[in-house]
Amino acid sequence: MRFWSTRLGARVDVVRRSLLGLRDDLRSPLPTVRVTTRTAVPAWAVRLLLVALGVTALVALQPGYRAVVVLTVVLGVLAGRPTGGTGAAWCLGCGVGWLIYPSTALGPVTFVLLAVVPAAYALASTVGRVPLLARIELAALRPALRRYLGTQLISQPLVAGAVVLRDRQLDLLPVAVAAAAMAAVLTWVVLPRLSGPDE
Amino acid sequence: MSPATGGWAGLDADYSQWQRHEPSTELHWHPSTVAAKVALAGVLLVVGVLTGRVELAGLALPLLLTVAWGWSRRPRGFGSVTLAARLSSSAGEPGRLAGDITWTPAPGVEGLQVRVSGPGHRPARALLAVPEPAAPGDDPATRVVPVSIGSVRTGRRAVFLLDRVEVAPQHVVEHTVVRRGPVELTVLPRARSLREVPLPVRLQGLTGPHGSRRLGEGGDLHDVNLFGPGDRLRRIDWRVTTRRAAQTARDGTIAELYVRRTFATADAAVMLVLDSRDDVGPDIGTWDDASRVRESEPTSLDHARNAALTFARRYLDAGDRVGLEDLGRLHRPVAPAGGRRQLQRLTERIARAEPEGEPKPRRRVPRLPSGALIMVFSTFLDDDAARFATVWRTAGHRVVAVDVLPVLRTARVSEQLEVAHRIIAMERADRLGDLVAAGVELVAWADDPRDPTALPVSAATALLARRRVRR
Question: Quick check: A140 and B8 CB within 8 A?
Answer without folding.
Answer: no
